[in-house]
Amino acid sequence: MGPETFFVSRERCRLPSSLLLVEAMRRLKGVPCSVSLRAGGRFIISSSQSAGGTLSEDDVVEIADYDPVRHSVLAIGLREPSPDTALHWLAYRTDELAAAAAFVWDFPPRKGVTYVAGRHPWGSFPEAMAIVAAAKRSAGPAGLEGRGYLVKGRSVDELVAAVAGIVKLNSREPQGKKAHPEDLRSSSPRQARLAFGGARRGAQGRAQGARGKGEPAGRRRSGGASESQRRATGTVPREEGR
Asked: 135: domain CATH number?
């Protein structure tokens, strides 16, 4: 699982872009994935021990070189690099515009992602080739069924926005499902008003219908007596001259 790692130096990555990688992982908190950034002719990647939102500078690993034949890497860092290192290396080798990449470990098929079928050892070079080949044929994110999907960006902001867009697209509620305050914490104020405005109008209509079924004839829906009934009982004074 993942390439064999040979450490050039067991020390914290000193590249300035390591802080950008830490920030990218923090912005993707809750999304299980591996993240990397291009660093000249090399790249830096999250460690095998990191997950969404738990990355620190100790989890940044610099990849000095990767050998696809031996499936091994030369690294600088304190921890083992992500098992997806081969995929990230190939993503940068085949796309000169890519400055950042993320591989999201998500097994169910997602909307907005192009998938290919195939079974390969987890983190292997053949798996990386299959995913990157799918990405080259797709205009957007691409992935392998039962494994996850690859997202690339020309900047950290573009990468994070692309991943967040897929997550948002697949977290929308089915039509007809009632909105709940807990579900709207991340919604905009306008979305919340529209959702609860419709729910409130529906509740008011049902309440009025229930009251209307039990009302006696001649009464208004507000429950008060009609004007003619009040005149008959003398509760409404007649106008002068009548």
From this structure: 3.40.225.10
- Check whether residue 25 and residue 103 sit in a common domain: yes
- 189 and 165 fall within a common domain: no
| Same domain? 23 vs 110 | yes
Residue with tokens 């969404």: 52
pLDDT tens for 136-174 read 998 889 999 999 999 999 999 999 999 999 988 887 644
| Nearest Cα to Cα of residue 35 among 144, 150, 148, 167 | 150
Residue-wise pLDDT for 62-99, tens only, equals 999 999 999 999 999 999 999 999 999 999 999 999 99
- CA distances 160 to 8, 31, 101, 137, 220, Å, are 30, 11, 9, 22, 58
Q: What is the pLDDT of residue 227?
A: 53
Tokens of 39: 């660093």
Q: Which two tokens stand for residue 195?
A: 């959702």
| Of residues 217 and 139, more confidently modeled | 139
Dig out the tokens for 190 from the structure.
């306008």
For 170-185, b/e burial (b = at least 16 CB within 10 A) is eeeeeeeeebeeeeee
Q: Are residues 100 and 201 in the same domain?
A: no
- Check whether residue 142 and residue 226 sit in a common domain: no
* 100 and 30 together in one domain: yes
Say whether pLDDT at 230 is over 70: no
Domain enclosing residue 110, as ranges: 4-169
Dig out the tokens for 141 from the structure.
């994110």
